[in-house]
Give the backbone structure.
Amino acid sequence: MNDPAVTTLGYALLGLIGQSPRSGYRLRLVFETTPLGTYSSSPGSIYPALKRLERAGLVRREAAGGGKPLFHLTGTGAAALQSWLERPVDAEEAIDREIALLRFAFLEGHRDRTLSLSFLAGFAAAAKGQVDALASFLAGEEGRALSLQSRLAVEHGLASARASLGWAEQAQDRLSAEIQKEKVR
Amino acid sequence: MNDPAVTTLGYALLGLIGQSPRSGYRLRLVFETTPLGTYSSSPGSIYPALKRLERAGLVRREAAGGGKPLFHLTGTGAAALQSWLERPVDAEEAIDREIALLRFAFLEGHRDRTLSLSFLAGFAAAAKGQVDALASFLAGEEGRALSLQSRLAVEHGLASARASLGWAEQAQDRLSAEIQKEKVR
DNA sequence: CCAACCATGTAAGCTGTTACATGATTGA
DNA sequence: TCAATCATGTAACAGCTTACATGGTTGG
């Protein structure tokens, strides 16, 4: 993590709050009702995480017009989110692709769509790296010594990395197309 | 987990020890040099995990012929491993497929290959369930409201689940073929 | 009025991470 | 002899999970 004090759950919260200010409960519901639920979560993790973000000065509770207080990003919080979003895709993220995908989803908040495109390029490169690494592991000495089922298990990783690679290429096309349409309009 | 006291790392260790007795250091090296490294690890997690398994009576240190002591499975340990391996693939494992794959790799230890085949059938069904869930999420109200990038992020999950499904079908064929060959021989 | 949902928390326990510590053995 | 690798740990810290606790509001 860029900011050592912020976990993946913390960044997910920052990203959601960045989309629109919400209460703790609303944030919890997002995790409960969307595929974002992978970053899990129960009151026992979300509320303390929000408190940490608050203590770190990344979010602020603000009650607008007599309603319940909602969480808003502070300047520092927006900057922390931004720098997390712009981090290059590393090898770790090529293996555990969910975190990278989370970043991709939140990258949409930015006007500058080229950020998303370069993210996809980096993601594709990382996926390709994983494909190559697994393929050469299978072709190498250790790989050839594997039993059928261990080999199949590794091949699953390979198939999964290939799927990610294919997805990234297609996503680049679709995003470019959308950018073109926006230019024309 | 079946046994509440055993984590994924614990089962990975049980599986490896079940393949062949090893020292703590050898076990660590496996994690450092193979794709199993996803279940991570540093001395600070492996040694305490081994100690827990020992305390729980699932493994035993045994020094054969004056060498360094190696970890062996106890009867209880072998039973715990077995029941973990035979657990049906649930929805959670369909999302986070790595744990399921770990079980698949270790299932090879069993003579009875039909266990592996039924595992693959269950895995395929779970993957299909994920595919359907994500597809209907995208087709539903919430899905249609998604921005392009959020939609693409979910589609990545879909592509990944489809890859798993395809892999499982192919794996079933290859495993069946191998079983046929064994019968003939 | 009562159930369901809104809304926010705390506490115990456990596991994993990082970093540090220690000593034996082996090869150049 | 000195560095690398073998080999096994401990300690501090932090985060997540589960379970429990509390009270307001709304609809049938």
Summary: Residues 23-25, 28, 43-44, 47-48, 51, 68 of chain A lie near DNA strand C (CB under 10 Å from a C1'). Chain A has a mean pLDDT of 90. The CA atoms of residues 57 and 76 of chain A lie 7 Å apart. Chain A has two domains: 8-87, 92-184.
